[in-house]
Structure formats: C-alpha cells, structure tokens
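Predict the 3D structure for this chain.
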Amino acid sequence: MKIGLPKALLYHYYAPLWKAFFDELGVDYIVSSDTTIKTLIVGKEKSIDEACLALKIYLGHIEELKEKCDYILVPRIFSLVKSEQACTNFNALYDLVRNTFKDIKILNYNIDVKHHKYEKSAFLKIGKDLGFSILESARAYNKAKEIENNYYKNEEKNAKDILKTNKTKILLLGHPYILKDNLIGKSIVNYLLNNNISVVYSYQVPRELIDFNCNKISTKIHFTMNKEQIAAFNYFKDKVNGTIILTAFPCGPDSLSNEMIIRKRKKHPTLLLTFEDLTNNTAVITRLESFLDMLKGGIHL
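Done. Predicted structure below.
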C-alpha cells in the first residue's frame, strides 16, 4: 500500500506530522513533485476560475499522484480552535477532490474542534482505516507529534540564528503553502538570497507566542491560520529591516489580515505581492528591486 501526499496546501503545515506518523506505522508514501508551470496549468483546467491560485496548484498535484498510489491523503479541517475557523478551502477540500476526481481513493480525516473532533482521534481513524490497532496508531501519533514539535523548535532556532547576522534581513510573511511553493515563494527567496538578503519566515514565530503577539494587533481574528502571520509580523518587525507579504488571489482571509498588518506597520517598510498567475514574473522582480533600493536608501513608504 502506498499513500499519496500532494505537495501543496495542508502538506506545508503537516508534512512532518504526516510523514512521521506513516513512518512509525511502516506505511509507504509518495510526495508529489515540486510545483511547475505544468502543475498549475493542469490544476487550472480542473478548477473553477474563482478558485485561488493555491487551490489550483493543489489540484494539479492531485492529478500527478492519482496513478502513482493506492490512496491520496485529503483531510478536512474546519476548526482548530473552538471559536475560530480554518480557510473555507480546507473545510471543503475533501468534497472538492472527491467531486473533481471520480476515480481516486481518498484517505480522509476530519478535524473540527468546535464539534469535538480532535486531531488525535482523526489520526487514530487513519490508523484504523489502514488496519492498525488503536494502540499502534496512538503510539505512532504520539511519536509523530514529538517530531513535529522538534521541527518547529528547530525552525525557531534557525530564525534566531539569522537575526544575529549583520546582513539585511527580510521577514517573508504568508501561508507556508505560499512561502514554500516552488513557483511562488522559492522564486522570491532565491532572488533575495542572490542579493545577499537574509530571510526569516512567518512560520518561524514561536508557537507558544502566537496568541500573545496576534492580540497585540487584534483580538478578533476569526481565521486561525492568519493569526500566525499577524503574530509573526508583531514578533519580528523590530528585528528585521523590512517585510514582504506574499498572498494568493483571491484569498478572503488574507485580504483582511494583510490590510490589518499594513495599517499597523507605521514606518516599517512593507511590500505586498499578490499572485494570480505565475507565467510572467517580470513585474514581481521589478517591485522587489524597487523595494530593496528603498531599503538601501532608507526610504519608508
């Protein structure tokens, strides 16, 4: 048996947890390739025009995997905190994939804390669906959580090390599935690194400080995953020389959190880059060049 993991959307939040869980159970898995223009083109063909860029990319990854594995992991996440909600795409992901790809088998779990459906129970369900006992699945989940926690601790350490350098430092702010995507985030990262800029990522904010730092800007954030970005901005803004926000059009939650950050930035240099299509990045590079020139010249807009 082989499980397919689409390298998009939730993968960039949960890859350490998923991989460690399947490794502990001895279950084979395959991860789709890095995003390419072909991935996006195929995903656009599978989605409606109104779908966000990240969702189109995700469907392209599903298409790549469908002939290579026995099941594709497609979770549904409605809420991670009782009074909050995940992105609506994550709520509907299972139904979207099931109705778009009629001929694939889906390995699914549901997290909805608001209705008492928790992460550990969800992973025990996966284990049961794969033929493992509750004890085996629980042990695998507990070990996987330990590995996941160590992953984030290591990311926090990496950020601290970067902040100690004397180089110009930029906070790259956005969802992990944007920042880590081969077509979107990595192209920006490579440009910055090639220009001798150090990069800190919003997902490197300490987990235990997210609520505290988010509340410094707003106590009424409905979408859980946007709290990380707002918290990261508040936590890092005085430690870096500038911030670049990456977002996929037309993301509703991002439009709210981005506006909130821009209004609270004061004199902190901030650039917002919104991606709708990735066939031509000339305009993006031009804006990056201008932003870096302003930083060097001490100009704050």
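The first helix runs from residue 11 to 25.
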